[in-house]
Amino acid sequence: MDTDAIIAVANEHLANAVAYLSQTAIWVQLVMMVLLFGLAWIVSNRVEPRVEHLARGITGMPGLLRIFAAFLRRLEWLFFILFLVIAYSVTSTLEWPGSNNLIYAVMLLSGAWFIISVSSRAIRSRTARRFFAFAAWFYVAAMILGVVDDVSQFLDSAAFSVGEIRISVLSVLQGVLLLAVALWASLKLGNFFDNRIQTVEELTPSLRVLLGKITRIALIVFAGFFVVSGMGIDLTALTVLSGAVGVGIGFGLQKVVSNFISGIIILLDQSIKPGDTIALGDTFGWIRELRARFVSVVTRDGREYLIPNEDFITHEVINWSFSDKYVRLDVTFGVSYDSDPDTVSRIAIEATSKVDRVDTAKKAPVCWLTEFGDSSLNFKLRFWIADPQQGLTNIRGKVLRELWYAFKENDIEIPYPHREVILHNSMKTESS
Fold this sequence. Notes:
59% of the residues lie in helices and 13% in strands.
């Protein structure tokens, strides 16, 4: 369609609009709708406070709460639609003012907008919600006004060709809408299947994470192929393009691909899993979540480190709970040479057993004399814990505190280092 044809069509529609607005019945309907909207606004202001307290009773359902809040904010439109229904019925019965098509069209458009705007609040993303509301209402409005074919023909006329592929504004809009719906449905299904997989206790935590990620990726890929096929694009035409994109990804996204593959390897070999206590370099903490690109590690000070998956493959990792959750800790101390070694060992074991986190059921603490030091008998105390994710420094501190109290109670001295300094004073006698 060329420019002259578009201008001619526009002038024709403009002339029809002017002729339509020159009718007396149209202005009567416009005045009626303005008055009905004002009445609806007054009624909604009186009704809204009385039903607002119902929203405060909705707990645990954020989606329903958002929909109910949107319903309250658009309460005047609900009354306006109801008043339009009454007005349409009355004018049809009285056959006045001759035509009520405008009231009928506004009633349908307002009802469609009200339903779409309220129901779209279930979508959390603000951008996606607005796009869905605009696209849905635009399509419904075109259907109500009977201009779907004209709009489709106009949008399809603005097009260009790339080889054998014809791209128009209409096909782009259809593709974007189809892609948005397909991705939204794939993500929702992926989350649903992932939540169901996480509840299967027969699977290991790593296998549950792996299956959830594979399911999500497979659904997203399927959505992409579905959109391409739905737009009528031959998949074989994308072979060369996909090869070029693959080479570009190989060179430009090496780290991203490496971390992704490393994440799959970690999930397959189960070297780490959510809940494990690990040490990587200077980072010590417990694994909160395994992602496609990184591992979330939470430390004892509340910091959350996002460590690339590749580091867990190429660096040395200490997993405190890889095959067994029990961890042995050592505490060294020294006592005076006047102390009895057997008594010291017994008191140290009894004091350690009083600490709540020390596991004495499976492996009892032991204490050995290890060295005759310069100023003390040196001992090594060994004990086991079953919750390394709760911290190691704090449990060592509790054990040392119990040892201090026990030694004080039994008059066992913890000696200070002794240093002896000898001063030599030499005097030289000069003879004169």
